[in-house]
Design goal:
By secondary structure, this protein is an all-alpha fold. The chain has 14 helices and no strands. It has helices at residues 3-16, 22-38, 40-45, 48-59, 72-87, 97-110, 114-126, 140-146, 149-163, 177-185, 187-193, 196-208, 215-229, 244-259. α2 (22-38) packs across α4 (48-59) and α7 runs parallel beside α9. The N and C termini lie close together (8 Å).
């Protein structure tokens, strides 16, 4: 894979998130934040710091308020912005404990969005606001039994993202053995399903776990590199709904996953 192929992905990702819409600015912010922590040399090569700083400028006045009329994606965007601003030590208007917990309860009980209710609660907890729902303070077996395969795989990958504060710290020495084993075991299924978004996230996680020399990592990386070679830089995931957000998200995941292979 040449630097040219990665450049296509970077250019396309920036084009896909050029909009001033909340989801686009939030996705650009969290993706560039992750990119800078995971592959700083490549991040600097593409001079993305300037873009990142401008994105921070764009989002710093966003009020992190949530209400029941927000979709899961909109709620995720708000919390992503909050996370990036706080990690960069930029003041932002954080949500109240009561309103955020009420939103998570609505996600879980009325919308059945287990994955989002769990993740947003865990992200808030990492930022010092404990709104985690008692029903979701469960072990890995619970999520394996109660989530369908795609959401369970995303649950696994986001355990790594949370554990590394979205790729800015090393993976903790303890607590990830069973998660890594489970994730490795899903490799063939992800490749067969053709999910480029999951393949990219899983490749990042296996690398974080020190598994970049395994055949499973090689399968995942080969899959996403093959897709990138045959595209204009944008990567469509056949398992996800055809939306601008999903196209940009998959392209971002692929961009980050291959950035350290340069």
């Amino acid at each position: 894979m040449s630097m040219l192929h990665l450049e296509k992905a970077v250019t396309k990702f920036l084009a896909l998130t050029e909009s001033s819409e909340l989801w686009a600015q939030a996705l650009r912010a969290i993706s560039l934040y992750m990119f800078s922590g995971y592959a700083k040399t490549t991040f600097d090569h593409f001079q993305l710091e300037k873009v990142f700083l401008q994105t921070l400028e764009n989002i710093k006045e966003e009020k992190i308020t949530v209400s029941k009329d927000l979709s899961p994606m909109e709620g995720m965007s708000k919390i992503d912005i909050w996370f990036v601003l706080k990690e960069k030590n930029i003041f932002c208007h954080a949500p109240s404990k009561e309103e955020l917990k009420s939103y998570l309860e609505d996600l879980l009980y009325n919308q059945g969005q287990v994955k989002y209710a769990w993740l947003l609660g865990e992200m808030a907890y990492s930022l010092g606001l404990d709104v985690r729902l008692n029903e979701l303070r469960r072990d890995q077996l619970f999520y394996k039994q109660h989530l369908h395969a795609v959401d369970y795989a995303y649950w696994l990958t986001h355990k790594y993202f949370l554990g590394t504060r979205y790729l800015h710290h090393s993976l903790p020495s303890f607590g990830f053995s069973s998660v890594t084993t489970e994730l490795t075991g899903l490799t063939n299924w992800v490749v067969e399903e053709g999910s480029f978004d999951l393949a990219a996230e899983m490749a990042i996680c296996l690398d974080l776990a020190g598994k970049s020399s395994t055949k499973e990592y090689g399968y995942l990386l080969g899959m996403i590199m093959g897709a990138l070679k045959n595209s204009d830089g944008a990567i469509i995931d056949p398992l996800l709904e055809d939306t601008d957000y999903n196209l940009a998200h998959t392209t971002a995941a692929v961009m980050i996953a291959i950035a350290k292979t340069k």
